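Objective 1b. Sequence-to-structure analysis of Protease.
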Amino acid sequence: MAEPPPLPADFPVPSGSDPDAVYALKSNCIGSLSQGTTDLKNKPWGQSQLRFDDLHQFATGKGVLVAVIDTGVRAHPYFGGRVQPGGDFVVKDKQGLEDCDGHGTEVAGIIAANPPASSDIGFRGIAPEARILTIRQSSANYKGNRVTAARPEGEELQAGTLETLAKAVVLAADQGARVINMSVDNCRAVAEGPISLAEKQLQAALRYAYEQKDVVLVASAGNTGEKGCPDQRNGIDPYKPTHIVTPPWFADYVISVAAMSRNGDPASFSVQGPWVTVAAPGTDIISLDPATDGLANLQVLNNGDQTSIQGTSFAAPYVAGLAALIRERFPNLKASQVADRIKLTASHPAAPGGRDNLVGHGMINPIGALTTLIPGEQGVADDAALDVKAVLPAPEIKNWAPTQVALIGSAGGVLLLLLTLFVVHTARRNRHGAQREARGSA
């Protein structure tokens, strides 16, 4: 289950743009912790780490359409009118421009926010001139009576399923998105069985977007303890995960993104798996406040506690934004080549092949991704392996004769010296004895 089974070539591509149930607002839309506009002046650490100040001299994402399939995106002023409606699987008439959960607006802000220079705000998106296509696919605050396999009579559930995610991918691709960000994951235990019909539908949608529409697909790797993901990193054997995370499972099409912490370590909540592609900043996030015209750096948990914004959901948009920059700077590259650029220029971990299951090919390096010369893009074939046999010089045969002669000569000299000393000592002793006898007789 580390890799999904291949999909039949004739598997139908899902389509549609209507919600799968009638959803109603059951909880209040997200509010703000501030009483007014919050202008956080400091730059997020991830922005400094990825060198935005230097990055934007090469590209800004201008003209590139990035789809954000999420909880909707509010047309925040810092987007500068670059948000366009794409669809809504929660309340159709809203067209993705309502964000009661706040998640989608924060994700989109990391991609394309651009506060005015006169505000002295340090924060901005990685692709500050990209356009955002918003498609609302899920919401924890909206619930409806949805039919499931377990309950054909229906039950009240929050909006968002793998089926609507699949339709949202196709909808975004058909509207011209060049990059799609999916900071929404579904986790299930491997023990639950083989690939499901809903997973096949998502696989078909991703294949369609990637192969037929040439879209760069980016997804978050998943957070431990959330949405069915395991409480631990996903098993002790990296090649036998205990849980499957979708969309990342479909690694032939998707760039899945793990989260890094400020200290350079992988974030403790980031789910590992053989499908993880790269990593990006995912802690201490600053982004757009979905309830005001300012910024936010805190979120409120279900128990009322406040915590910093974090998660692989917010690492993925750094990579989606980087893909937009690459697509602007290198407009002729295919989606696969964009993905290769991101992987080849990442800061590889000290692991066999420069990749592991926790951070993939490593922390992204946007400057490298925009400036590195990749021979394959110039039509230069990879270097062929050479069958070169190691030819060692013949062993040196040591002539020990001179050494033996020298040792024998040295030994002879030592013996002669010892013999001489013995003779001299004996002669002196005899002479002293004779002198004592002569004195005694006198």
